[in-house]
Design brief:
Associates with the 50S ribosomal subunit. This protein has three domains: 4-161, Rossmann fold; 181-353, 3-Layer(aba) Sandwich (Rossmann fold), CATH 3.40.50.300; 359-437, K homology (KH) domain (GMP Synthetase, Chain A, domain 3), CATH 3.30.300. Helix content is 32%, strand content 21%. It is built from eleven helices and 15 strands. The strands form three sheets. The chain has a six-stranded mixed beta sheet, with helices on both faces. Strands 8-9-7-10-11-12 form a six-stranded mixed beta sheet, with helices on both faces.
Length: 448
């Protein structure tokens, strides 16, 4: 088992910057803005041959009584409970605060291995400012500069020293029977994305709060269900561009769009109480453009009456008509209603997106389609479709070869798409059809 290192501290002391240094990534959003990180954020680090897991947490206020800070504190306590060693990050330049004393008192009561780290200590390794942090009662203060990478290796070595190193073989080899399915949950702010993931996990893993914009980062959480491993990605709610004022939200939008692009399947969550908005259509358009498999789910279905349900179904048919290949489910995340069929559709969408289509079968379906309905003539010639093969997966791409294919109409493309979908039972994934016209070797030669 890899050891787990949890980073804790009050807001804006540089925990996320240190997280990015330890994991050698840019997975955690970093900005000069207190309270940016709200959920637990996991990453993998390595020191030589030794691997470990790093957990980034939100600003810790142990005595927070209510509101979002109470939820963040609960997340941090859970991260500390999971950790083998706790790295308590303080700000050398700001000095010791009352909140630092509260956190130190909490950590001393737990009795877990703890490393006290003085961040933002560039040029201050021998400074007297470090001495005041000894009053926290957690021993030696390690000066580091997460922004410049100074002292980070020594910190890692110090954190791992107290833990036993068991050189065990990995439980999972390269030939895993099943790959990990990356599932991104996307939608507008406050539609219940974090609540749904918490329901799937059976624990309050993500901060779920009745406040739009609670999730500001794309948070990844592992889950295994019926032998299949998933990587659940809770994304920040996407607002209209004109309403993205804070630089923090702009970062969140970028992270969300990247999460969609890196996913195998995207669950687009709609809010039954709000109907289908322009923003829902905008997110759906981006998912389609990225080529991801997609499943639609309407959350809070139990909170609306029959008339509202009928109007919502009509709205989905008209405003999201371009996603008619996507399965549609009506669910309630809080009451756990409709989640079983939803899982079935998510798996089916993944299988469709990664489906292998043999060239002989594709060509047979193509020629049968042409015999059933030939393409329209273009002047004196008619497009001639000869054979087809698969050109890619996720999304599936079918490449059709022939002559004069530039004259194939959009309507005929849709006809062919329907035939291919029916043959391979493609549900929940876009299907792209490319036409490649063969060149005529005699076009530049004179006859005779």
């Amino acid at each position: 088992m890899k050891p787990v290192i949890a980073l804790v501290g009050r807001p804006n002391v540089g925990k996320s910057t240190l997280f990015n240094r330890l994991t050698r990534t840019r997975d955690a959003i970093v900005a000069d803005f207190p309270g940016l990180t709200r959920d637990r954020h996991y990453g993998h680090g390595r020191l030589g041959k030794r691997e470990f897991i790093v957990v980034d947490t939100g600003g810790f206020e142990p005595e927070a009584a209510s509101g979002i800070f109470h939820e963040m504190a609960r997340q941090t306590r859970q991260a500390v409970a999971e950790a083998d060693v706790v790295v308590f990050v303080v700000d050398v330049r700001a000095g010791v605060s009352a909140q630092d004393h509260d956190i130190a008192s909490y950590l001393r009561r737990l009795g877990k291995p703890c490393v006290l780290v003085g961040n933002k200590a560039e040029g201050m390794q021998e400074s007297a400012h470090l001495a005041e942090f000894y009053e926290l009662g957690l021993g030696e203060v390690l000066p580091v500069s997460a922004a410049h990478g100074q002292g980070v290796r020594s910190l890692t070595e110090h954190a791992l020293e107290a833990l036993p190193w068991q050189d065990e073989p990995e439980e999972e080899g390269e030939g895993e029977a099943r790959s990990v399915i990356r599932l991104a949950v996307a939608g507008r702010p406050n539609v219940g994305k974090s609540t749904l993931i918490n329901t799937w996990l059976g624990e309050e893993r993500l901060v779920a709060f009745d406040l739009p914009g609670t999730t500001r980062d794309a948070i990844s959480v592992p889950l295994e269900r019926q032998g299949q491993k998933f990587e659940l990605i809770d994304t920040a709610g996407l607002r209209r561009k004109g309403r993205v004022f804070e630089a923090v939200e702009k970062f969140s939008v970028v992270k969300t769009l990247k999460a969609i692009e890196s996913a195998h399947v995207v669950l687009l969550l709609l809010d039954a109480t709000q109907g289908v908005t322009d923003q829902d259509a905008h997110i759906a358009g981006y998912i389609l453009e990225s080529g991801r498999a997609v499943v639609l789910a309407v959350n809070k279905w139990d909170a609306v009456d029959d008339y509202a349900r009928q109007m919502l179904e009509r709205s989905i048919e008209t405003r999201l008509a371009f996603l008619k290949f996507a399965p549609l489910h009506f669910i309630s995340a809080t009451r756990r209603q409709g989640l079983g069929p939803l899982w079935a559709s998510l798996l089916q969408a993944y299988r469709s997106a990664t489906c292998k289509m043999p060239t002989p079968v594709l060509t047979r379906v193509l020629l049968e389609s042409v015999r059933f309905q030939a393409p329209k003539r273009a002047g004196s010639s008619r497009p001639k479709l000869r054979y087809a093969h698969q050109g890619g997966m996720n999304p599936p791409v079918i490449v059709i070869h022939g002559n004069s294919l530039e004259h194939v109409t959009d309507a005929y493309r849709r006809f062919l798409e329907g035939r291919f979908r029916k043959e391979f039972n493609l549900v929940g994934t876009p299907l792209r059809i490319e036409m490649k016209t063969s060149s005529n070797p005699y076009v530049d030669k004179g006859g005779g």
